Amino acid sequence: MDLKDSLLRISENISRMRDSLQTEEATKNAFIMPMLTALGYDVFNPFEVVPEMDCDLTQKKGDKIDYAIMKDGKPIILVECKHCNQNLDLHSTQLQKYFVASNARFAILTNGIEYRFYTDLEKPNIMDEKPFLIINMLELSDTDIEQIKKFHKSYYNETSILSTAQEFKITFQLKELIKSNINSPSSEFVRYFVKACNDGYYSQKQVELYTPMVKKSLASVINDILSERLNIAMKNEEQQQPQNSKINEQKIDPDSKNNIITTQEEIDAYNIIRSILRDTIDVKLIGYKDLKSYFVVYYKSQWSWICRLRLTPYSKKLYLPSESGYGDASKIQEVKLSSIDDLFNLSEALHNGLLTAKTSKDNYDSKH
Q1: Which residues, including other chains, have CB under 8 Å from residue 151's CB and lie 6 or more apart?
Q2: Which of 44-58, 168-182, 221-235 has the lowest mean pLDDT?
Q3: pLDDT confidence of 98, banded at 50, 70, 90?
Q4: Cα 359-364-368 angle, rounded to 5 deg
Q5: Residue 182 domain flag
Q6: Which residues span the domain enclosing 205?
Q7: How many CB atoms within 10 Å of residue 315?
Q8: Are 224 and 274 found together in one domain?
Q9: What φ, ψ does residue 344 adopt, rounded to 5°?
Q10: Domain check: are 15 and 76 in the same one?
Q11: pTM higher than 0.85 for the full model?
């Protein structure tokens, strides 16, 4: 099992088990030890992972770090664990003390769900107050997985990680700042636009007047960018699609770089969805496309998708578009399936997905 599959499996287990774990030890056993194992470390080998390692500057052997990942007899990564329901904001000070005592270059504070990665970018051997990387196992992206991969035993390179940690930290701070101002523009942020629109002049009254309009304008610009990219992609896809292609056929090229194999389970799910929707639409207009990350069921064009499926032996999920369209990815609905037979109980949701897809495609066609 590769790293991505291992992480996705851990993510699925977190969703299933988190409400049942009563203690910190249970969190370690169910979530954190599997993570260390996925990263290639033998949690039962004291030359690789030392549990409860002493980290006390006074040499009284009182303070202990939950796990120390070792290399050449020295700790390289400290892992401090908390219960899965613990707020990590309350515990970074303790980890800072361990960091100084150990001389490790990296430290992780985790509750098994969120992983915060720290180093000493600001002062040597003094752990930074803010992490340079935060990973939420319930919201894993391909980018997150690539960052986690850097800490895998087979790929670990201290110099390489440190060279990019500063960039990660600044990028994270900028993203948080931008996100914050999109959701709730600060006075300083709004003041920039007021001055730009009024030859450098501004007043508090203008700032208050502009604030809701700045927020609305930002949302509008983001939606316009997404719509433009979607329209370009749809146009390119339709230009490349053969006029007489059969929607129901999919050929697998064994020499393809992607080497994507459509499973029988995916085909069965596709046929279930078509049977559910056939009462409202000609099923010849419904097609599918198998991608690396998910299986898409669409109306006329893959960009007007009705739903997406991610089916693995240990995790089955259905993704449905927002009722307002495709503009806000954060509003995509995720539905966990015990088996593809659960699709029969989701008729209304699938019909709503079809309506969203049809509206999107019809709007695109009317403009082109």
Answers
A1: 39, 77, 106, 117, 161
A2: 221-235
A3: confident
A4: 150
A5: no
A6: 189-240
A7: 17
A8: no
A9: -65, -20
A10: yes
A11: no
